[in-house]
Design brief:
Blueprint lengths: L6 H4 L18 H5 L12 H6 L13 H14 L3 H14 L1 H10 L1 H8 L3 H7 L1 H4 L6 E4 L6 H5 L9 E5 L16 H14 L6 E7 L5 H4 L14 H19 L4 E4 L4 H11 L4 E4 H21 L8 E4 L3 H18 L3 H5 L2 E5 L2 E2 L25 H8 L3 E4 L9 H10 L4 E4 L11 H7 L5 E4 L6 E3 L2 E3 L2 E2 L6 H11 L6 H12 L4 H5 L10 H18 L12 H8 L10
Helix pairs in contact: 5-6, 5-8, 6-11, 11-21, 15-16, 15-22, 18-19, 21-24, 22-24, 24-25
Cofactor: Mn(2+); Mg(2+)
GO molecular function: malate dehydrogenase (decarboxylating) (NADP+) activity; metal ion binding; NAD binding
Organism: Cucumis sativus (Cucumber)
Length: about 575
């Protein structure tokens, strides 16, 4: 079996110098064409074809990487079904890694919805049916007691970031078990494309403890364990073994990103490991950071300070309480008031109605800080009319819950109501962009979790923003990695939010946007990475010393390049 030379070694070469594509020996011929790390397809020069035994294995023409990108984009645009585009992109990633990333980086606004939400949701639902070859590591209950050995089966040694899921709460689609692997694979593609983390330094992991999804358990194509979910001690011991094995195998500075765990596990895991590992939960912390950035940016359109506004959430799970807490932390920081007082500006509605103090005994622990003194209210529309929020945020995972009555009530209370319908995928969004703009007569400041097309209303074109976590986590992760940070702290999340909000230009505001366009995402990520790293150095949590003088330039210099290298 061949063991490829790690990309980290190749990175020491300057791009315009020749490099040798090593496997166990020099990769050549048929094997070179099937090595995704080194394959260049028709872009191999005649000299490279002679040197690496490729003559006759390729058609005679030599084309540039740019022409390859153009051809592939044309082919993708021929597909009418988003899932077909997703499968084509995954095939490309498995056959020509650099071309995949160059295509994704140069056409990120068009292809982000293909490789991630909303299409990745459908891909996870059908993962067993479309499964071709494994991506990432599958750690099931069968591997209990030998997880360290399983980690060592992965061919790359210099791992810097792991995205791990147990598949219990995939987007707004529920328990997809082992088929949730599409989420870590997709997230890590974005770490490389948007944040510049080397693909070989990324490891997708799915922890398979079974599924409670009867449809999957009865699906002959399901690829996971066919049993009900393990819970309690059995679950805890497996995850704990995994966390210990990761640290033992990869060291103190390995970033572990928890993704799409159910609420009851997500909060517990984050709290349990935040002081012993470098851990980050994108659903709780990443979502909070990107939403706070949008709210801070929106203040330039509506006026006032953060503390002047009143926030009402529909949804009190990981995302809702995570966002609420970060907003409260920012209010507390800006006004020098107690966190408990800052929380009083923020109200949450769950499936049982407004969270109030009379419900406190029956609430889950993460909801209790939001139980304020108020009469019980069952329906969202009544909460809007009574609380009179200036900002309405949806994290419920239930589509069409921002009804016409709710949105019109927001418009009656506010000249420019801020409405954020954040649930994914598109089908689960609390309202559409068209509904938000139409029902507020074009006055809403709107953003969603999944993308919506521009909306024309009474001669004006409104471009909805997307509160996509991809704005935050790639740059956030890069900042942690390049500074050698050993723990995540809330001040780093606030720094990331402020850095993102600062990237919104007046031109963006003139279009009603509260997020910058994704076309500049690598520049945005570099600025976020710099602010996060600076905060880590300030807090004494960074280990890569001395601190670089220009952290933005340092971040840019650390970023992975998808351009082909010349082979000797």
């Amino acid at each position: 079996m061949e063991t490829p030379l790690k990309d980290s070694v190749l990175d020491f070469y300057i791009d315009d110098q020749g490099v040798t594509p090593w496997t166990l020996s020099v990769a050549s011929g048929y094997n070179l064409l099937r090595d995704p790390h080194h394959n260049k397809g028709l872009a191999f020069t005649e000299k490279e074809r002679d040197a690496h035994y490729l003559c006759g294995l390729l058609p005679p023409t030599v084309i540039s990487q740019d022409l390859q990108v153009k051809r592939l984009l044309n082919n993708l645009r021929e597909y009418q079904v988003p899932l077909q585009k997703y499968m084509a992109m995954m095939d490309l990633q498995e056959s020509n890694e650099k071309l995949f990333y160059k295509l994704l980086i140069e056409h990120v606004e068009e292809l982000l919805p293909v490789v991630y939400t909303p299409t990745v949701g459908e891909a996870c639902q059908k993962y067993g049916s479309i499964f071709k070859r494994p991506q990432g590591l599958y750690i099931s209950l069968k591997e209990k007691g030998k997880i360290l050995e399983v980690l060592r089966n992965w061919p790359e040694r210099n791992i810097q970031v792991i995205v791990v899921t147990d598949g219990e709460r995939i987007l707004g689609l529920g328990d997809l078990g082992c088929q949730g692997m599409g989420i870590p694979v997709g997230k890590l593609s974005l770490y490389s494309a948007l944040g510049g983390v080397r693909p070989s330094a990324c490891l997708p992991v799915t922890i398979d403890v079974g599924t409670n999804n009867e449809r999957l358990l009865n699906d002959e194509f399901y690829i996971g364990l066919r049993q009900k979910r393990a819970t309690g001690q059995e679950y805890t011991e497996l995850v704990h073994e995994f966390m210990g094995a990761v640290k033992q195998n990869y060291g103190e500075k390995i970033l572990i990103q928890f993704e799409d765990f159910a609420n009851h596990n997500a909060f517990d895991l984050l709290e349990k490991y935040s002081n012993t590992h470098l851990v980050f939960n994108d659903d709780i912390q990443g979502t909070a950071s990107v939403v706070l950035a949008g709210v801070v940016a929106a203040l330039k359109l509506v006026g006032g300070t953060l503390a002047d506004h009143t926030f009402l959430f529909l949804g009190a799970g990981e995302a809702g309480t995570g966002i609420a807490e970060l907003i409260a932390l920012e209010i507390s920081k800006r006004t020098s008031t107690a966190l408990e007082d800052a929380r009083k500006k923020i109200w949450l509605v769950d499936s049982k109605g407004l969270i109030v103090s009379s419900r406190k005994e029956s609430l889950q622990h993460f909801k209790k800080p939001w139980a304020h003194e108020h009469e019980p209210i069952k329906d969202l529309i009544d909460a809007v009319k009574d609380i009179k929020p200036t900002v309405l945020i949806g994290t419920s995972g239930v589509g069409r819950t921002f009804t016409k009555d709710v949105v019109e009530a927001m418009a009656a209370i506010n000249e420019k109501p801020i409405i954020l319908a954040l649930s994914n995928p598109t089908s689960q969004s609390e309202c559409t962009a068209e509904e938000a703009y139409t029902w507020t007569k074009g006055r809403a400041i709107f953003a969603s979790g999944s993308p919506f097309n521009p909306v024309e209303y009474e001669g004006n074109v409104f471009v909805p923003g997307q509160a996509n976590n991809a704005y935050i986590f790639p740059g956030f992760g890069l900042g942690l990695i390049m500074s050698g940070t050993i723990r995540v702290r809330n001040d780093m999340l606030l720094a990331a939010s402020e850095a993102l909000a600062a990237q919104v230009t007046q031109e963006n505001f003139d279009k009603g946007l509260i997020y910058p366009p994704f076309t500049n995402i690598r520049k945005i990520s570099a600025n976020i990475a710099a602010k996060v790293a600076a905060k880590a150095y300030e807090l004494g949590l960074a280990t890569r010393l001395p601190q670089p003088e220009d952290l933005v330039k340092h971040a840019e210099s650390c970023m992975y390049s998808p351009s082909y290298q010349n082979y000797r």
